[in-house]
Amino acid sequence: MNAEQREKAIVRNMQALKITRKEAEELVDDDEAVDRGEALPWDLTPEQMKNARKMANATTRKSSGKSERVKKVNLDKRILITCLQEGLASMDEVEALTCTNVERTLDFTYKGISYTVSLTAHRK
CA angle, 67 as apex, 64 and 71 as ends, to 5°? Predict the structure, then answer.
């Protein structure tokens, strides 16, 4: 950085940061030292740097793995599907009556057309 650029940087820092000329000069000197890659007194020691990297990569909570969701048995839906199945079975024209899911669906054929009945319980 030449003398003219240095002076502009000092004035700019004095105005922007509202600091004295001496502080602005020290700031510009330190910036130039950092640009050259010099070690400064406030830089972290290698031990502190290692610790800082370790803390930056730390997680906030430990994951205990994925837990399997246990499906709750809905007896009301089973009863309703059974009632529907019995009712359809009593009809003469219903054929191929199968329960594909004991809490959800019934498949059957009525007058040659295939149907599926799906039971949905809405949340409260």
Answer: 165
